[in-house]
Amino acid sequence: MDDILLSLSGNELARSTVKKLGLPLPLPQVLKRHQGPFAAQGLDGLSVSVAHAAGSALGPALASLLAREGSETQVAAAPEVFAHYQETGEAWGRKSAAAELSDECEGASPHALIFDATGLSHPEQLKSIYTFYHAKLRRLAACGRCLLFGRPPAQAETPAQAAACQALVGFTKSLGKETGKKGATVNLVLVEKGAEQAAMHLAAFLLSYASTYVDGQAIAVGAQTPEPKSLPLTHRLSAKTALVTGAARGIGEAIARRLALEGAFVVCMDRPQEEDRTAKLAREIGGSALSCDITDPAAAEAMLSHLSARNAQLSVLIHNAGVTRDKMLVNMDEGRWDQVIGINLASIMRVTEALLPSLGESSRIVCLSSIAGIAGNVGQTNYAASKAGVIGYVKALAPALARQGHTINAVAPGFIETQMTAAIPFATREAGRRLSSLSQGGLPGDVAQVVAFLSTPQSFGVNGETIRICGQNFIGA
Amino acid sequence: MATKKDSAKRRAVIVGGVRTPFIRAFGALTKMDTIALGTAAVKGLLSRFPIDPERIGGMVWGGTILPGGVAVNAGREIVFDAGLPDTIEAYTVTRACTSSILSVTLAVAAIERGEADVLIAGGSDSTSNVEVRMPPTLVHKAAPVVMSAKSTPVDYLKLLGKLNPGKDLKPSRPSIRERTTGELMGESAEKMAGRNGITREAQDEFALQSHQRAAKAVADGRFAPEIIPVTTPDGETVFADNIIRGDTTLEKLGKLKPAFAKDGTLTAGNSSSLTDGGAAVLLMTEEKAAELGFTPLAAFRSWSYDAVDPKDQLLIGPAISMPRAVEKAGLKASDIDLIDIHEAFAAQVLSVVKMLGSKGFGKERLGLPGAFREIDPKEINVHGGSIALGHPFAATGARLITTMANEIAQAGKKNALIGVCAGGALSAAVLLEKA
Predict the structure, then answer these.
(1) For a tag on chain B, would you pick the N or C end, based on fewer CB atoms within 10 A?
(2) What is the Cα–Cα distance from A457 to A269, expressed in whole angstroms?
(3) Is B188 at the interface with chain A, CB within 8 A?
(4) With an 8 Å Cβ cutoff, is B355 touching chain A?
(5) Does the beta carbon of A88 lie under 8 angstroms from any beta carbon of chain B?
(6) What is the distance between the alpha carbons of residues B133 and A93, in angstroms, rounded to a whole number?
(7) Hey, is the C-beta of A59 within 8 angstroms of any chain B C-beta?
């Protein structure tokens, strides 16, 4: 990884020199990244400013979350909502102070600016969001977080409410472009009625440094998948078996390592050509290696017998294996088309359907999509079709899985620094890196963090969603 | 540990307890290590509560500063040094400042499930004899030479040449730092004071209460049955505690400098001191007590051992353990007569008291409909606590149990709830009841 601008930015002297000389070089913020497994009290000692619009629903849930996570909180809300913060703040020994919407933040730069807009019923009330962020945004800490909560526009009771809800999406995406140079991200959680608690688990993830490269996203949280019996705060995947396809390299390898870190037994699967790398990875993370071509019609059977030989029940399935065979459509031979659709889409469906009956309680399936599947890309008709197909597939399969206590989601990485992207010509690569709110590429570990969250029991409210991990890439946004 | 209220066919009682005087570290007891202090406590126990040693079924001992180079199982050594029959089995447990709460409840459990009729339990610690550790770099360099039978004087000379006197020969200062956070316990308590809004004034006031009550208990002879004299290797006999300052005032306490942070609120005056001492109790079944002519002081209704996150509030645990012990006993907070909380720091006691009275804490962290119980700090620790008396880590639990058992018996109380915090973010609570 040789992002020169990013290394310059990380160097105090170079940074100030560039600034003093007024060089027209964009210096992206070096991002803070969470290391290690998920931790309890991820916001320990950080200051957070939060506001609840009138009639919003998340007062008790957010008050409890923020105190547990360890933040000191300034709250702009009705007195009865503030009372929840006082109560939970006292219970966890964390300060909470009442504030006005238009107050500037006091004390340390806030790590997060949170707005609960679940109570909005009319666009007139949007002004409160303007007031809150207008007064506070300037002091947001580097690599801070803006997090908004709203109701899904589709479930609005009146057109006016739908307008207000949809407005949040536009606001979120634009604000993200404004805060990106600070390394700060802006995301929106669309909370269905009854999913208030479920939304808090996603919120904890988005507020942490584990969500570093997730920016400008609107993610829905629903109440269809029931809350699992156990939600351990650490070692969240202990005693669970995960399988990662395409685990030998890049993002797949990062995912396998991350899931193992969270306590899972990881079956690392890749093509027979990668046998050595896969075996080495499996040894390092205490998992097992499975050499198998995903397009082989017998692949699912091989996976099942590998699992049953280890007396393991699968509860996390990560469909990461994928290929590109780029060509302009007019020049694309049939083989390229068939191979890409076969590996990236058809085999995901075949394997999922074969493994579904034997999945363990509260299982999690995550498919790797791509921003190409959202925005399209020159020379990638085959690839984009397959990756868009994945998005359609998880959305359609989600309700059925919810009834069984499972979830299925997709993640769509943007420009991630891997061997594959290192091979892209310089100019194109630079464009890929810089054309995002965070002005830099993501790391395989950033994708792994999101996949890890979606693999944990805590993610039960997120189902059928596609989360982009792209630093708010300008393409297809 | 399940509540024993239904299952107790056998009921263990405490018939007596004693402790050595508690002496500030590097004072008169300096030459006595954890084993010697334990031996003094056990010998004193058997002189106050004489029993045919053959009837003693075993001993459970607690210690945190164990003389590793000498013996790991301090309890067994105490059996030998106290001149007890070699056939008395013994083991040693360590759970930081709750070590002798643990040793006593382990003994109670063993008696109640029929393993023994009579057991001695207790704990001791000599903070004057903390092992001074040499840097690991020295150990790593020296070990291959020292441990090898083939080493020659030349090897030793070569080794000397390799040593870096500034780095390898500098012993590390013993301190009570948390291994996970690197914080001194006082620094953690300072953080708790800030987070729970405990003022310097409130801490000093509580420390004053501790000293005044302890001094009064001494003057009234209330502690006399609990303290046994100890004769040191130098031939000096120590009769009384030496940390209590009955004549201290808020003014004097207010003048002390913060001990753990520049603008902090914790001082040497409102914190417990490093102390040497030991404490032991004699436990047996009710039937055996009657048979041997002992008067039971109290029985053990329930207990609870818990843990929290050391990176959060290290010493808040008693606010969880105490309500849990009451719940396991099937009682309500209002049923409790006496409350005694170990005073590691006034800030920690007042934080715990505040959380026990907090509606938010009750709901968020205890699953109760509201606060556990509003408590005025004046209600608790009727005879003072570790701030005035001192805190030889593993002796404190047995001291608390002895004092509260006597209080139940003498004052005719129904029960007493004891809460103790400990390093590693551990805690314990024991509910004693009228025998």
Answers:
(1) N
(2) 23
(3) no
(4) yes
(5) yes
(6) 36
(7) no
With contact defined as beta carbons under 8 Å apart, do A245 and A150 qualify?
no
Q: Mind listing the pLDDT tens digit of every residue in chain B (435 residues)?
A: 444 444 458 999 999 999 999 999 999 999 999 999 999 999 999 999 999 999 999 999 999 988 877 888 999 999 999 999 999 999 999 999 999 999 999 999 999 999 999 999 999 999 988 876 677 787 788 878 877 888 888 888 888 888 887 777 776 665 678 888 889 999 999 999 999 999 999 999 999 999 999 999 999 999 999 999 999 999 999 999 999 999 999 999 999 999 999 999 999 999 999 999 999 999 999 999 999 999 999 999 999 999 999 999 999 999 999 999 999 999 999 999 999 999 999 999 999 999 999 999 999 999 999 999 999 999 999 999 999 999 999 999 999 999 999 999 999 999 999 999 999 999 999 999 999
ipTM, interface predicted TM-score of the complex: 0.79
What per-residue string of b and e applies to B198-217 under the rule 16 or more CB within 10 Å gives b?
A: bebebbbbbbbbbbbbbbeb
Write the single-letter amino acid at B112.
E
Which strand (E) or helix (H) includes residue B139? helix B136-147
Q: How far is CA A436 from CA A119, A138, A326, A432, B260, in A?
A: 31, 21, 23, 8, 47
Give the gap in angstroms from C-alpha B344 to the nearest C-alpha of chain A.
19
Closest CA of chain B from A94, distance in Å = 6
Residue of A41, A91, A95 lying closest to B311 (CB–CB): A41
Cα B386 from Cα B213, distance rounded (Å) = 12
Q: What is the DSSP string of A86-155?
A: HHHHHHHT--EEE--TTPPPPSSPPSEEEEE-TT--SGGGGHHHHHHHHHHGGGPPTT-EEEEEE--GGG
Q: Which residues of B285-319 are buried (b: 16+ CB within 10 A; e: fewer)?
A: bbebbeebebebbbbbbbbbbbebbbbbbbbbbbb
Per-position DSSP letters for B264-291, written without gaps between them: -S-BSTTBPPBEEEEEEEEEEEHHHHHH
* Total count of residues recorded for chain A: 477
- For B137, the token pair is 């770099």
Which residue in the block uniquely carries the two structure tokens 């000397």? B160
Q: Which two tokens stand for residue B285?
A: 């079944």
Q: Which residues touch A217 (CB under 8 Å, ≥6 apart)? A: A172, A187, A188, A467, A468
pTM above 0.95, yes or no: no
